[in-house]
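pasting for the record
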Amino acid sequence: MPNSSSLTQFLLLAFADRRELQLLHFWLFLAISLAALLANGLILSAVAWDHHLHTPMGFFLLNLSLTDLGSICTTVPKAMHNSLWDTRTISYHGCAAQVFLLVFFLGTEFSLLTIMCYDRYVAICKPLHYGTLLGSRACAHMAAAAWATGFLSALLHTANTFSLPLCQGNALGQFFCEIPHILKLSCSHSGYLREIGLIVVSACLMFGCFIFIVFSYVQIFRAVLRIPSQQGRHKAFSTCLPHLAVVSLFISTATFAHLKPLSISSPSLDLVVSVLYSVVPPALNPLIYSLRNQELKDAIRKMMTGCFFKKQ
């Protein structure tokens, strides 16, 4: 069996054996990635173009779109390449880069979603202190902390995972490089336990953020229900529900992907679930936000109308 020092490539899980299905997966992933690029690109442009969106929520939404673009560009291009050219390989260093970038973008995204929850909590429960608690300097510091947290987490997990000796072959049961599947190839018990410890620490931190989000939304909904006017309640809900939907989509798919019972685990189910948490959210998040955010919809409409008439 090869060890990690002699490994030059890994074998990823193929979507299908039949050529027709491989091409179908290529075109499907191409459509999803183009939709994600277009939708997130529109949000980035709208937030930068319209001064009405130069708010803390707009700033964090811009950062969220960057993480969505980063995560889908980390996994999908290689999967498309393999489906189109009927291959399964990824280089050792390419796999390490994929693990680092995916953990970096997903970790940063979860931190940003937690910060955006805090933004909604302050806006609704402590509106008089909003300008103080969420000024431009504070927002920049929180966003920098989110990116730094994602970077540090990715660095620790990647360095530890790819320092392990691998002696169980080079076939990964996933269409992209994922830490649990790489750990299955390890023959170092102590290194394996060290990485499991890092994963447990990360899971505890994420659980702490999840508890904070739940607690914040309990306080938010209590405050919203006390608003006397129906219009005021509708406006408050319209700013909170998109964020809650995105958080629910992110947590539910990622949790099920990594904590599903072994009794129902299978290569085909693992493949579907991994697509749901790594590919679908970056394409759906912009749609969720734009459907309920009237200011964002107006900004996108004005921007596109302005570009159209400028060409005329």
